[in-house]
Amino acid sequence: MIRFVVTGHRAPTTGDFKLDDITGGAGRLDVLVRCVNSAFFLSHSIRTDTELFLVLEGGRDAPKTIRFSGKEIRYLNPDERSTASLIRNALLKKLNDTEIRSSPGIYVSRRSFSDVVDYLRTVSEIIYLKEDGTDIRDTTLPEELTFVLGDDKDLTEEEEKVLMACEPSKLCIGPLSLHADHCMIVVHNEIDRQRDK
Amino acid sequence: MIRFVVTGHRAPTTGDFKLDDITGGAGRLDVLVRCVNSAFFLSHSIRTDTELFLVLEGGRDAPKTIRFSGKEIRYLNPDERSTASLIRNALLKKLNDTEIRSSPGIYVSRRSFSDVVDYLRTVSEIIYLKEDGTDIRDTTLPEELTFVLGDDKDLTEEEEKVLMACEPSKLCIGPLSLHADHCMIVVHNEIDRQRDK
Predict the structure, then answer these.
(1) pLDDT tens digits, A52-84
(2) A66: closest CA among A53, A77, A78, A75?
(3) Cβ-count burial of B52 within 10 angstroms (0-12 exposed, 13-18 middle, 19+ buried)?
(4) What per-residue confidence (pLDDT) applies to B151?
(5) How far apart are CA A106 and CA A67, in angstroms?
């Protein structure tokens, strides 16, 4: 299983944002919906072996985590607006202490970044993409792995502390610094190639 | 210079589409605006060595080509809606036989797919991404190169005929078939690595 965790530092946690303004009023939710696209879309199918955790840290009801399961997901389209709408539906759900299903393959909970990472470290190797890491092409990637990324901002100091406590592998995907959704495409391509050997 | 040509088989050629409906009413313009994002965005800058040609083949005034120059472009944001708005502005321009500037780095003309490819073959190597091509990692990519891609549909028979007349190199980027905008990310990553050596 390939897992991605993306932190949305200003991303909304209530469903009262406008779909016409996901870049501004909705705290750069556009960055996160592009990550959903990168996580799951193949040319004519969905990556069923992938799971994405969007940790939303902005707004009045933070934190919330939306989990997308490639194996179960339905009604997902590649465009930003329709994915933002699926997220809005999830944020309109009433929450208690457990994770609940918003639509097929989309789950919402009150988990924080450290809740998510503390869980994932028990089931997979944690990987931090950094410019000074080992080249991903020189690494044999394990079956169970989790990549942790920031949205348009790097991880906060506190998040980095949580992450470093997991002793993550540091990997680099190329000489230039890319948007989170673009990093995910390069990562998938390398995994596709390694698993095809 | 890295150039991409993407054909929008049903993409609009008049500016009367709604920004809220770029997936449906605007003939999958969403696919093309994601290609704009992939062509140009780095984490904190723009790829100035890249040019993108969107060949729009749908609607009442086909064909039109919108050319994006990374060196000159301004007012470009990564989200789909704002890029669709830049394209709409270009399509509202009155055209004669020459290419005209719509906004900094964005140009529009009545060029067809074959007009664009016939020009580009004189200035660069033409590359066709195909599953049965040579692995891009096993190829030394030249300085001047043009990648030709379809939107969510493959090239038409006629377009493929035009392309094959250029005797393009056939390259493959991995074992799975990806969306056009995702292919562009993988291509850029390989070029970044080769030019960094």
Answers:
(1) 999 999 999 999 999 999 999 999 999 999 999
(2) A53
(3) buried
(4) 86
(5) 6
Angle ∠(B108,B51,B7) on CA atoms, nearest 5: 65
Q: How far is A83 from chain B (nearest CA, A)?
A: 12
Any B CB within 8 A of A194 CB: no
Helices (H), B26-68: 29-40
Query: What CATH number should be reported for the domain holding residue B107?
Result: 3.40.1280.10
Determine contact: B51 vs chain A, CB below 8 A: no
Query: Which residues in chain B have Cβ-Cβ distances shorter than 8 Å to A192?
Result: 174-176
> How much is the pLDDT for B37?
98
User: Which residues have C-beta within 8 Å of that of residue B97, sequence separation ≥ 6?
Assistant: B110
Total number of domains in chain A: 1
- Rounded to an integer, the average pLDDT of B63-70 is 98
Which residues of A fall within a CB distance of 8 Å from B185? 178, 182, 185-186
How close does chain A come to B1, measured CA to CA in Å?
17
Q: How much is the mean pLDDT over chain B?
A: 96
Q: What is the mean pLDDT of residues B175-192?
A: 98
A130 touches chain B (CB under 8 A): no
Interface confidence (ipTM) of the complex: 0.97
Cβ atoms B172, B129 nearer than 8 A:
yes
**Bridge partners (DSSP) listed for residue B51:** B3, B69
**Interatomic CA distance for residues B97 and A187, integer angstroms:** 44
Can you tell me whether residue B164 is helix, strand or coil?
Answer: helix
Decide if pLDDT at B98 tops 90. Answer: yes
